[in-house]
Amino acid sequence: MTAMCDVAFLLLSFFILTTKFKPAEALAVTTPKSVSTNPAEQKDVVMITMDSKGKIYFSVSDDAQEEKQTIIDEVNQQKALGLSDADKKAFTRSGSYIGVPFSQMKSYLALSTDQLQKLDKPGIPVDSANNELQVWVRAAYAAFQGSKMKLLIKGDNEAKYPSFKGVIDALKRNEIFKFQMITDPEGVPPGTALYQKNNGPSQPAAK
Amino acid sequence: MAEMDTSGGGGHKKGPGVKKSKKLSTRVDLTPMVDLGFLLITFFIFTTTMSQPTAMKLILPKDTEKPEEQNKVKESGALSLLLGKNNAVYYYEGTLAPDGSNFKSTNYKEIRTVIIDKKKSTNPEDFVVVIKPGPESTYKNTVDILDEMTINEVKRYAMVDLFPIERQMMVATEGGGPMPTAPAPAAAPAAK
């Protein structure tokens, strides 16, 4: 009994220490799988999210408060949105994200978090004629000058390619050619070139 | 160990003159504690997220209008992959024949053999995979194909928009209508 008790509490302490609660995701996205093994960055992240309907959202990680402030100031000034300080504060609060065109920005930022959940958000337009994401990315790029910005794209399995293309266009127009896509880990299928490389050439090639 | 010692120390007979003294047990019933422990373990096992999301790097080339800066692709080494709707993949080697005779369809499971075969049969320096996601393909399809490039160690690949002729051919194949000139590739079933 003592032994079992010991093991139980050892396991308990292990799980308590290793557990990391998933932050409540405002946007439900199921990411695709890939064989990539490098973990996704957590700090100084500029995240572009695509939901299952292909709508685009823009968010900045919470540790970059100053940059968030700079971004919203910059966008406000550039697009003459006429945001009040309270509106800007809504953007800098934790877990905020942008999911509307500039024309709806003011009313969007006035909403509370609960109201945002219920709101049917149209997403940021990314079509070639009116690519508003480009403005956001440019503002973010300018704000993060100095510290390195990590640009992550988190897309849903079901998102259609044209939305992804709109995102790529927005980045390309800002001369950003390097970004990362968030995926779930997946095993490398045996017998392939990458598998043989990872496991050393001594493995008999399965052909 | 976990059971309460209720005998009260009266285990062995004492002598007749000795007064029975009630000895308090030092043993504690551990069962509720263990119960609680396992309950918590179960809770943490279920709530913990062991796998961290990973990130896949993608580096794009700069778009250029100048022909001298554009990369030329040797016809013999090119493999074009067209991503259609419902997880279908279409592919052709080299350039698309006007009658569409080399336009073939497959799915995401079998595309790997196509890539490996092509990789083996061409000069490594000339081998280029051209990825053309169609408007009906999903983000997952795109990531899967890019992943396939990593898996098969394809060093050179490019993402290009569909040509109108390819789009037509894809629509014709997907529509289920018989292609008059192509060997009527049946629309590939969904991969899953």
Would you kindly provide a written description of the structure presented here, covering whatever features stand out?
The complex is a heterodimer of chains A (207) and B (192). Chain A has helices at residues 2-18, 65-79, 85-92, 105-109, 113-118, 132-143, 161-173, 193-198; strands spanning 33-34, 45-50, 56-60, 150-155, 178-185. Chain A has 207 residues and is of the alpha/beta class. Chain A has a domain at 44-186. The relative contact order of chain A is 0.18. Helices cover 27% and strands 16% of the residues of chain B. Chain B is rod-shaped. Chain B starts with 30 loop residues before the first helix and ends in an 18-residue tail after the last helix. Chain B has a domain at 76-174: Nucleotidyltransferase, domain 5, CATH 3.30.420. In chain B, strand 2 (78-83) and strand 3 form a beta hairpin. Chain B has helices at 31-47, 111-121, 139-151, 164-174, and strands at residues 54-59, 78-83, 88-93, 104-107, 128-133, 157-159. Classes of the chains: A alpha/beta (207), B alpha/beta (192). At the A-B interface, helix 1, strand 1, helix 7, strand 5 and helix 8 of A face helix 1, strand 1 and helix 3 of B.
Provide a brief overview of the structure.
Chain A has 207 residues and is an alpha/beta fold.
Pick out its properties:
heterodimer, A: 207 residues, alpha/beta, 5-stranded mixed β-sheet, 8 helices, 5 strands, globular, disordered C terminus, B: 192 residues, Nucleotidyltransferase, domain 5, 6 strands, 27% helix, rod-shaped
| Largest sheet data of chain B | 5 strands, mixed
Mean pLDDT of chain B: 74
Structural class of chain B: alpha/beta
Q: Which percent range fits the helix content of chain A?
A: 25-40%
Class computed from helices, strands and strand pairing of chain A? alpha/beta
The name of the CATH topology of the domain at 76-174 in chain B is Nucleotidyltransferase, domain 5
* Tally of separate helices of chain A: 8
Write down the overall geometry of chain A.
Answer: globular
